[in-house]
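Journal club side-thread
Mid-discussion, someone asked how the predicted structure for our own chain would compare to the paper's figures. Pasting it here so we can look after the session.
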Amino acid sequence: MLAAAPPDLDESDAHRIIDRYWPGTRLRLRRIETLSGQVIQSKLTQKYLEPQRPTTETVITNTYLTAQEYDLFAQLPTRPLIKRRAAYPYHGWQFSIDVFEGALDGLVLAEVEAQNGQLWPGDLPSFARCEVTAEKAFTGGALVHIDAAQLRALLAAWLDEAV
């Protein structure tokens, strides 16, 4: 978790991610757009942790959708989560910085994918406040169930602990 987006974050190539979660399932509908609203990609995703695997290993299955298929799934009742995502190069690694919108405004998370089977090799990067990878409260499926007041309380608890 970050206290804020890094001041040198370049959002010129950022995109908006609109996730729609179906409560009680491992499924989400995702649309990725340019910041001006042009659709880049639509997909149906199943995402979950296997109990015997580390929390850093998530099982993800994507089915890429046409606009018509997306519109069909979008008719089902879901809980939305919206964020802007920008790439952030740091010490030879590529991080993704997610700046949340709407009820989750103020939440900023970073993630880094493994490179050649290797995980991030050290302590938290200098721009991060605390590690929340293994915390269920910071998964998209959990975040869609909280409002702005609950988010403020969650952030206050975590950021106070990180100081």
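Post-session note: The chain has a mean pLDDT of 91.
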